[in-house]
Amino acid sequence: LPEQEAFDIEYWDLEEAKLQRMPKPKPLAGRIALITGGAGGIGIASAQRLLDEGACVVICDIDRDALSGAEERLRTQYGKDSVAGCWVDVTREDAVGKAFSDLGWIFGGIDICVSNAGIASASPIDETSLATWQRNIDILATGYFLIGRQSFQLMKAQGIGGSIVFIGSKNALAASAGAAAYCTAKAAELHLARCLALEGAVAGIRVNVVNPDAVLRGSRIWQGEWAQQRAEQYKTSTDELESVYRERSLLKRSVYPEDVAEAVAWFASERSAKSTGNIINVDAGNAQAFTR
Ligand code: NAD
């Protein structure tokens, strides 16, 4: 090569290498994310994942102690300017309305909403009280409606669309004995997400669902009657449940909150810009395992 050309090539390579080594902007930098049930297992793991990707995160929860503990933990890890905590009972229209109007006032809007708050109750249908039935519907169907509706209002007012992620459940699609209230409420939540996806498209609002199966580690759902009932069903102890679920899964692997958070981050970001009204099952292949 002539001397000048050789120099140009080397110079160009150097510039390319320099560009590649420059820190890349984080995918969610500048985004505001709200996570309900953010003080608990899947919620806090999702908060950490979105914070890792550069978002500012507001965690909401009904449990004040857990909320302040989670807020403190996240602030220590990511800095106090990136994290805020907000008390909310997702079943209360006034509380949800107040939280969203505060968010609108402080941040001008939100870009991401992860509706995750939840409970799970277990009882045979003939022993299920109306109060239990109602509680599942209130939190998992009505609560998701209230959060979805307020997100729509705020995202539409902001005018740049957004991403809403519902944490569903394998039980939204597959019935489970002794959990009719939970399964029915989760099915309603899933269908609500599909309706919101249809309505939101024109405003650039995407709505998707992550369906986990049996995330035992870090989940308070698995510390109560739900775990007890499942242990009886599989004739094992609650301590052995994680390995039981692992062994009956197609992949022979446990699902952790971080695995669910990974799917949440994908739906929250522009990486999933062409997806709405969709589901990711994070279930170690269980949905397939049951149909083999
Ligand atoms: P978790 O109990 O650890 O966390 C749920 C959080 O929601 C808690 O912090 C709780 O205080 C909060 N919450 C409950 N009621 C609320 C209300 N009315 N308003 C505001 N916050 C409220 O449970 P998790 O396992 O992290 O579950 C999170 C979501 O994942 C739930 O929707 C659950 O149905 C779903 N899910 C969990 C599993 C699993 O195996 N853990 C499987 C499938 C789906």
Present the secondary structure layout.
Blueprint: H1 3-21, E1 32-36, H2 41-52, E2 56-61, H3 64-78, E3 83-87, H4 93-107, E4 112-115, H5 130-158, E5 162-167, H6 180-200, E6 205-212, H7 225-233, H8 241-248, H9 257-268, E7 279-282, H10 286-289
Helix pairs in contact: 2-9, 4-5, 5-6
Bound molecules: nicotinamide-adenine-dinucleotide.
Protein name: Rhamnulose-1-phosphate aldolase/alcohol dehydrogenase
Family: Belongs to the short-chain dehydrogenases/reductases (SDR) family.
Organism: Povalibacter uvarum
- How many helices? The count is 10
Number of strands: 7
The Rg value, from CA coordinates, equals: 21 Å
Q: Would you list the SSEs in sequence order as H and E? A: HEHEHEHEHEHEHHHEH
Structural class estimated from helices and strands: alpha/beta
Give the distance, in angstroms, between the N- and C-terminal Cα atoms. Answer: 63 Å
Shape: globular
Bound molecule kinds, no repeats: nicotinamide-adenine-dinucleotide
What's the oligomerization state? single chain
**Beta fraction of the residues?**
5-15%
Walk across the major sheet and give the strand order.
Answer: 3-2-1-4-5-6-7
Low-confidence regions: none
Average pLDDT for all residues: 93
Helix content: 40-55%
- Profile the largest sheet: 7 strands, parallel
Properties at a glance:
single chain; 292 residues; alpha/beta; seven-stranded parallel β-sheet; 10 helices; globular; binds nicotinamide-adenine-dinucleotide; Rhamnulose-1-phosphate aldolase/alcohol dehydrogenase
